[in-house]
Structure formats: structure tokens, C-alpha cells
Fold:
Amino acid sequence: MSAGYVFEGARVIDPAAGVDEIRDVVVANGTIVDGAAPEDAERIDARGLVVAPGLVDLHTHLREPGDEHKETVETGTRAAAAGGYTAVAAMANTSPVTDHAAIVHEVRDLATAAGCCDVFPVGAITKGLDGESLAEMGEMVEAGVRVFSEDGRCVPSARLLRNALVYAKAFPVEVVLADHAEDASLVEDGQMHEGAYSYTLGLAGRPAEAEEIVVARDLAVARSTGGRLHLCHLSSGRAVDLVRRAKAEGVRVTAEVTPHHLVFTDADLVTYDTAKKMHPPLRTDADRDALREGVADGTIDVIATDHAPHAVEEKDMEFDRSPPGTIGLETALAAVLTHLVAPGHLTLPHALAAMSTVPAGILGAVEHGGPLTTGRPANLVVFDPTQEWTVEPPFVSKARNSAFTGQRLTGRVRYTMLRGELVVAEEKPTR
Ligand SMILES: [Zn+2]
Structure:
């Protein structure tokens, strides 16, 4: 273990403290320190680099336990570190499902053993994701879980959502219910956004109203119960409007969007690229623009990856037989820098707040998201905002189903630091 590190002459962006300035960042004994570095500290020339709180992903599928051929906690957290993340929320649709405390501990212990990135398991709302009986939420809250979700599936009924939101309000800590908003009856065999391109390509559609109906339902239930709702990966412009209005009325809701929904549209499916098949689907130009606006005006609080790894042979299928999802941990920051910050849709501090500070708050990840003040754990990302690179396999993730494959992106993670240890150095994972 090093005595410490000094990142010299960095642009420090610390959204939690409202800081954006050029200075040194000193780390000793795993924490940020104000003032002089230890004499034997390692000095890293960080001129031209940005130092910020490590990124926090509110929506990662690590696949373990159960689908270790797609990803494991170890490979997924290593990919997260490579992408600048120091904490990720692991979704509950594993096998067995994360619906009781033992699985929460198992996933977290696997992450501790790998030592790449902190993992905050998300609990299932219902037992075995059956959509009917509530899971052991109480014991999972005691085990530290703060977010519950059926992700992969939509909460099937308003009644279940209402019961869960009311139940969650009784806990002494804030517990958030996150929903994958797609009405199952409208998307049964749907492969992509329903519209001109789905008709041309001959693929069954998933209409935007499938999302809008559930978002409207969820907001109504959150309004009436006063419960704390989070909407996963919005894809429809009208859904963004619904959230904007609900927030203005004081409904307790946050929303997220993925980098791929902020970058691609259904027009990008003309090559039948299965890496761009996901739920909810990529939609129209107008939807993408509305999502960008939603992030810029604060209607959408969080940019989350929905990292969804699959084995090569699973994705290498006809479009309608391939499972949905794209990996995203290693490309999220660069995608946001390239497609949102560089063109002026979003400031860099705002982007970093949406990718670190805000999701850390929702997850209850108190050691993450800044502020980078004395005595705080040194959980940091250090990136070059000008370095260009081309996305291509292999990835640090076990999977290679990236919607961004072949894209030229600007912005590269150079170092990721977890509690004062470099888990990524000179772009390479150290563990
Ligand atoms: Zn989902």
C-alpha cells in the first residue's frame, strides 16, 4: 500500500461541494487530506485531467448468482472500475433472485473479495420476482438495501405498487421503489420501438405508450401514497413530460436515462445490430432530444448504464431471438462527454452530478459521490476529457454486446481510486 498520492494540477469537479477549480488532490491513508502530502507520496501529473468523485451506477446487471457465463461480480465490478465507477447497484434479477438478506450478503461478499468497486445490491419487490407477494424487504433494509426493483419486469399492478410504496414508507430510512415502466400487455413479442422503422424492418413493435401508461400509473400511485418512486431508464419524450409535471406538483420521484437512449435512435437498427436491441427500446429522434432536454433541465436526475451483459453466442442470433440489452459500464462516461457535454447539451459538473453525486444519494452510498473534503474516503475517478479512442472488443467485462462498438469517443478514464487504492492505473485494472 502506498503512503499516499498527489494528483497535481488537476481540474477538480466536486458537484456535492459546488467546486470546479484547478488544484492538487492529496490522498493519504485512504482518505482525502487538506494540505501537504506525505513525503513518500506518489506524485501523479494530472494537468489536463479531471478529478471527480468516483462514478456511481444506479442500474447494473452483474448476473451472479446464476448467470456466471454472462458476467460475474468480479468481472462486472472490474469493468465498472475501468469505466470510472467506484460503486454500482446490482439488480435483483439473478438466480436465485435477490429477495432476501442472504443473497444481499453473498453478492456484497463477492464484491469485497474482488476489491474493484463497491456493490449495493438492489432487492426484489416480490418473492422470486413473481409479481405477487412482497419479498423480505424488512430484512433486506436491515442488511443495507435502500432500493427495490423488479427490473427486467414491470411492477405488474397498481395495487402491488401501492402496497409496496406504503410498506416502504414505514422503514426508519428512506427506501426507494424503482420501476421498469413498460406495460407487459403492449410489448409481449415486441423487438424494437413501434413506428416507421419497425414496419420497414418487419419487426414487432414495443409502442411508446407502453412506457407512458405505466409512468402515469406509477406517478399517480406515488402522488396518492406519498411514497418514494424511481423510474428506470426512461425512453419516451412523453414520459419525460409526465415526470416534469409530477415533480412540479411535488411528487417524490426521481428518474434515470441510459447513455444509449441519449445517443441512438430506432434508425440505428437498420443493420439489425442485436447490441442495439434493448428494453425499453431505442426510440425516435424527438424522443432522444426530449431525453436530453430532460437531463438538462433536471427532470431526469440520473444517467445510469443498465449494463446488461450476455454471452457472445446468445447475442449472435437472429434479431428476434437475441436477448435484450447492451453493456455500458466502460463507455458511459465517454459517451456522455462526447454526445452531451461536448455539443453543449450538458455542463461537465452537471453530467458528473447525474453519474455520481445524485445516484449515490439515492442508493445511500454515503462514502461515494463526494464531497471531496478532508477525511472523506478517497473514492475518485481521474479522466482525460480530450483523449479519443475507438470502442472495440475485447472489453474488461466478460461480454462484448456493446451498442457503442465501432464508435469514436472522446474522454478516457486514466485512474480509478477506491478508498485510496488505485484499482485502475494508466487505464488498466490493477486487480
Ligand atoms: Zn429495465
